[in-house]
Amino acid sequence: MALPRRLGGIELGGTKAIAILSEDGRIIESRTIPTGAPEPTLAALNGQLAEWHAQVPLAALGIAAFGPLQLDHAKPDFGTMLATPKPGWSGAKVAALIVGDLDCPWLIDTDVNGAALAEYRSGAGQGYGSICYITIGTGLGGGLLIDGKPVHGVMHPEIGHLRLRRAPGDMFAGVCPFHADCLEGLVSGPALAARFGCDAAMVPDWDAGWAYVASDIAALCGAILLTTSAQRILFGGSVMVRRTFLLPLVHTLVVQALGSYLPFLTQQTARDMIRIAGLGSEAGTLGAIALASAALE
User: Fold this and answer.
1) I need a labelling partner for 258 at 20 to 30 A (CA). Which of 15, 21, 104, 140 fits?
2) Are strands 232-236 and 131-136 parallel, antiparallel or unpaired?
3) In whole angstroms, what is the distance from residue 182 CA to residue 174 CA?
4) φ and ψ at 27, to 5 degrees?
């Protein structure tokens, strides 16, 4: 009797990390731990994987981690964390400490590239090879697939740190410690708290400041369409999911800015192309498993 195909996944976030066990396409077990210092956090994740691997060998492992990450296989620090504002994590040997002695194929990628891959395989990106997945929450991250494969080059996409044209009259300086008014510095959760002077959850939908937020997100969508020709731009994260009025504003603003230039762009196609992601809060978890599947393939 053939053993079930088991895949392991790690979703490494800035505040929590999740080890996931999938069997024949179903998630059957998971363990969540706080993201503390690198060594104990990564050791705990490796220990959980090793326990599952001892029960029934894992066919493959996928690691979907916050970044920035070194993803160039030719570099001696492949699989490590690059300079990050998260204390203690710059230079952390993420892949090496998670994989350890596990003898199975594995892949590591950014959490947003993993989420984009999951949306392509089983979410709102099915049937479309060119996908950009954007999450807006504590930060702003962007994953990009071309022909169904995550994009890498000298690094990985850092879409959240684009600096784009601002709406006239918007004087908010931004909060990014690196770039001030990049997109992450303008519309992430901490940026919204600074912009409004309070927890953004307390700000009513009719507040005029949301128009600037919609303008910034629309500028991001326009830049993605112009540079990647993505067939789908899929939004995850609390900001876009909870503030449902933002997406129709973004559609309108994108069409106003680019509809006369991009022949495919109308109000209807904008609604079809720029939408909320399909996997919701499971995108990160399923992204790790999607990377494990890709490691097998």
Assistant:
1) 140
2) parallel
3) 7
4) -80, 120
